[in-house]
Specification:
Blueprint lengths: L7 E7 L6 H9 L6 E7 L6 H11 L3 E5 L6 H11 L4 E5 L4 E2 L3 H6 L7 E9 L13 H7 L4 H9 L8 E4 H4 L23 H11 L3 E12 L7 H4 L3 H7 L3 H21 L4 H18 L5 H14 L5 H24 L1
Parallel strand pairs: 1-2, 1-4, 2-3, 6-8
Antiparallel strand pairs: 4-7, 5-8, 6-7
Helix pairs in contact: 6-12, 11-12, 12-13
């Protein structure tokens, strides 16, 4: 049991969230765990979000609101609001969910010696109607994950930590900052995110063997077309990847994968087996970008299949990789023939 006097900071970012914001703020203020502060950073909203935030900050002395002067995007905005938090623990909040009243009490009473605890969620639509599971067995994997070299690869492909269901020790969370951004030129900052902040936290915690999963639903997670990750994360992965079978999109995907792996290798303290697996994945991604087939490439393809046999949703990744190799190789041959 943790100290009931520990302050929990709720780190919330907002952007044009007027439709659901009141309901979310009320669900946080109604928590059974009372020693909380709510810290909000608004990312240049153009609707009445700012008016709602001012109303709550004037009414409640534990609600603090900050405003960006320019749009930062998801990762940088969460990074900013986390640095503004004063609590020993931080619970990350979206602007459009509904928290169960005992969420914080449940999480802080179960975090024990871990730096991070994450839990399950229940999906709802715009009108609070329950939805079926739309995240394709992510939480089934979370129930059985364990610390070994093959599961780091699983964590790379399958993020079990949803920011909105987690509680994190602040001193650990600060070691995860800065959150990943690409280093390419001539892109607006909002397009430079190469990994969502919660996936990065998940990998950092897993590398430290300090993440715990609690198989209980602690929030109602709202799914609607204005979710910042709705268009990319909540669709069937087969459909999503089939729609992206375009040469430029494939190349961009693998450039980003290589950049992610380089980031992981440079910033995380991985064991040797996990490090070697990530380096092997980098070689595989580089070979796909070469869009050619050689003996060396076939050896890497075999290695890739061996690695994918260890991960969750393996058939998705095997089919995806095979299709993309063929597309890039065929397009390369066509280009040379011309």
């Amino acid at each position: 049991m943790n100290n009931k006097n520990d302050l929990i900071s709720i780190a919330m970012t907002t952007y044009n969230g007027e439709k659901y914001l009141r309901e979310q703020l009320d669900s946080i203020l109604n928590q059974t765990y009372k020693n909380i502060e709510i810290v909000v950073c608004d990312d240049c909203s153009t609707d009445s979000t700012s008016k709602i935030l001012e109303e709550y900050s004037n009414k409640y002395n534990n609600v603090r609101v900050f405003y960006n002067t320019e749009t930062n995007g998801v990762n940088k905005n969460f990074e900013k609001v986390i640095n503004l938090c004063m609590g020993d623990y931080i619970a990350i909040s979206d602007q459009d969910d509904i928290w169960n009243n005992d969420k914080l009490e449940l999480l802080i009473n179960n975090i024990n010696e871990f730096d991070v605890i994450c839990a399950n969620k229940t999906d709802i639509d715009d009108n609070n109607n329950l939805l079926p599971d739309i995240h394709f067995k992510t939480f089934e994997f979370a129930k059985i994950f364990k610390y070994d070299e093959s599961n780091f690869l699983n964590m790379y492909f399958t993020n079990i930590l949803w920011g909105c269901t987690s509680l994190i020790r602040k001193n650990f969370l600060l070691t995860c900052i800065p959150f990943p951004l690409a280093h390419r030129k001539n892109e607006p900052p909002i397009l430079k995110e190469i990994m969502y902040y919660d996936h990065w936290i998940c990998l950092c915690a897993y590398a430290n063997k300090s993440i715990k999963y609690l198989d209980k639903s602690v929030i109602k997670h709202r799914v609607h077309n204005n979710n910042c990750t709705r268009s990319s994360n909540n669709k069937n992965p087969y459909i999503r990847w089939i729609k992206n079978l375009d040469k430029n999109k494939i190349k961009e995907y693998y450039l980003t994968e290589i950049e992610r792996i380089n980031l992981i290798l440079s910033r995380l303290n991985l064991d040797e087996k996990s490090k070697n697996i990530m380096m092997e994945m980098r070689k595989i991604n580089e070979s796909i970008l070469d869009f050619r087939f050689s003996i060396k490439d076939f050896k890497l393809l075999y290695l890739e299949f061996k690695l994918y046999k260890k991960i969750n949703r393996r058939s998705v990744f095997i089919l995806k990789s095979f299709a993309e190799r063929i597309i890039l190789a065929v397009l390369s041959c066509f280009h040379h023939n011309r």
